[in-house]
C-alpha cells in the first residue's frame, strides 16, 4: 500500500499531523452525552465552548447533536438538525479552525456543509445512509469512517469477535473501498477503530495495542477520551478518567495516528507536545 500522506484535507483546509496527532475537541449538543461536563445547551453555549477549546489548542472541533453512547436511541433527523444547525452557525462565526459534524444522515450532513462544516464524522462508515458517501465526494469535505458492531442502542449487548483486530481492519478496508468508489479522495479520509462501539474491555485493549494493524496503516482517528473501558481497568467514574484518557492518546501518538478526539484539549495538547519534542530530539541524535 502506498504510504499515507501526513496531511488531512477537509474542504479548503489541510491539517498537518506530521509532528503529532491533531487534537479534535468535542462539542456535545445532546442532553444525554455520557460525559456531562462536555454538554452544551444551545448556540451561544456551543460558541463559547468552541472558543474555549480553540484557546486551549484544539486543531479542529467535532460537533454532535445525536448521542451515540451505549444504549442511546436515535434522536431523529429533525431533532438532530434543530440542535445542530443554529449551534454550527454560531460556532462558525466565532472560530476559524475546521469543523466536523458527527452524523450519519446525508440530509443533516448536507445542511451542515452548507452552514460551514468542513468534514463529516460517520459512526456507520457510510452504511447508515447510502447518500452520505456520494455527498462527501461531491463536497470535497473531510470524512471519518468508523467501525461499529450493531447500533448505539444494542452495541454493548455481549459484543463478540473471533479476532477483533482482523475483523475491524477488514471492515474499515471495505468501507474505505466504498468511499473511494464513491469518489472520495484518499487524502480526505480517516478511519476510526471505534473504541467502545460494540467492544468489551479486551477488544478495546487489543485495538489500542495494535492500532496500526487494526486501521490497516491508514491515517486514523482515535476516540478514547473518558470512555468506559478506562473504568474497566481503574474503576474510576467518568469525571476521574483523564489520566487514562491521556494514556490512550499517548498510545495513539506512538502508533502515528492522525488525530485524537478528546474532551480535555489543553491537557492532551500539552502531553502530545512534550512527546513530539522528545521524539524530535531523538531524531536529531
Task: Provide structural commentary.
The protein has 285 residues and is an alpha/beta fold. The chain contains 10 helices and 10 strands. The strands form 2 sheets. It has an 8-stranded parallel beta sheet. Strands 1-2 form a two-stranded antiparallel ribbon. Helix 5 links the parallel strand 7 and strand 8. Helix 1 packs across helix 2, helix 2 packs parallel to helix 3 and helix 9 runs parallel beside helix 10.
- How many beta-strand runs? 10
Structural class: alpha/beta
> What's the average pLDDT?
92
Number of helices: 10
How much of the sequence lies in strands comes to: 15-25%
Measured between the Cα atoms of the first and last residue, the distance is: 30 Å
Molecular shape: globular
Question: Measured on Cα atoms, how large is the radius of gyration?
Answer: 17 Å
Assembly type:
single chain
Question: What attributes characterize this protein structure?
Answer:
globular, 285 residues, two-stranded antiparallel ribbon, alpha/beta, single chain, eight-stranded parallel sheet, 10 helices
A few lines on this structure:
The chain has 285 residues and is an alpha/beta fold.
List the helices and strands and how they pair.
Layout: E1 7-10, E2 13-16, E3 22-28, H1 43-55, E4 60-64, H2 77-94, E5 99-102, H3 106-114, E6 119-122, H4 132-139, E7 142-146, H5 164-182, E8 189-192, H6 201-209, H7 211-214, E9 221-222, H8 228-234, H9 242-254, E10 259-262, H10 265-283
Parallel strand pairs: 3-4, 3-10, 4-5, 5-6, 6-7, 7-8, 9-10
Antiparallel strand pairs: 1-2
Helix pairs in contact: 1-2, 2-3, 3-4, 9-10
Amino acid at each position: 500500500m502506498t504510504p499515507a500522506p501526513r496531511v488531512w484535507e477537509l474542504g479548503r483546509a489541510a491539517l498537518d499531523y506530521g509532528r503529532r496527532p491533531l487534537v479534535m475537541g468535542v462539542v456535545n449538543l445532546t442532553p444525554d452525552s455520557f460525559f456531562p461536563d462536555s454538554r452544551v445547551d444551545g448556540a451561544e453555549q456551543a460558541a463559547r465552548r468552541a472558543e474555549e477549546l480553540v484557546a486551549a489548542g484544539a486543531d479542529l472541533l467535532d460537533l454532535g447533536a445525536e448521542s451515540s453512547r451505549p444504549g442511546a436511541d436515535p434522536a431523529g433527523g429533525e431533532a438532530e438538525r434543530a440542535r445542530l444547525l443554529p449551534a454550527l452557525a454560531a460556532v462558525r462565526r466565532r472560530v476559524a479552525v475546521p469543523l466536523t459534524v458527527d452524523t450519519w444522515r446525508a440530509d443533516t450532513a448536507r445542511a451542515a456543509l452548507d452552514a460551514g462544516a468542513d468534514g463529516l464524522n460517520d459512526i456507520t462508515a457510510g452504511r447508515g445512509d447510502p447518500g452520505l458517501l456520494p455527498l462527501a465526494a461531491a463536497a470535497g469535505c473531510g470524512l471519518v469512517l468508523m467501525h461499529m458492531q450493531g447500533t448505539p442502542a444494542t452495541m454493548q449487548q455481549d459484543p463478540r469477535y473471533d479476532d477483533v483486530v482482523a475483523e475491524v481492519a477488514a471492515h474499515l478496508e471495505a468501507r474505505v473501498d466504498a468511499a473511494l468508489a464513491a469518489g472520495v479522495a484518499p487524502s480526505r479520509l480517516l478511519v476510526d477503530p471505534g473504541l467502545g462501539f460494540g467492544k468489551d474491555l479486551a477488544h478495546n485493549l487489543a485495538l489500542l495495542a495494535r492500532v496500526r494493524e487494526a486501521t490497516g496503516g491508514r491515517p486514523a482517528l482515535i476516540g478514547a477520551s473518558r470512555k468506559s473501558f478506562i473504568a474497566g481497568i481503574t474503576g474510576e467514574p467518568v469525571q476521574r478518567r483523564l489520566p487514562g484518557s491521556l494514556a490512550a492518546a499517548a498510545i495513539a501518538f506512538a502508533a502515528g495516528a492522525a488525530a485524537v478526539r478528546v474532551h480535555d484539549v489543553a491537557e492532551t495538547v500539552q502531553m502530545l507536545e512534550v512527546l513530539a519534542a522528545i521524539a524530535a530530539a531523538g531524531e536529531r541524535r
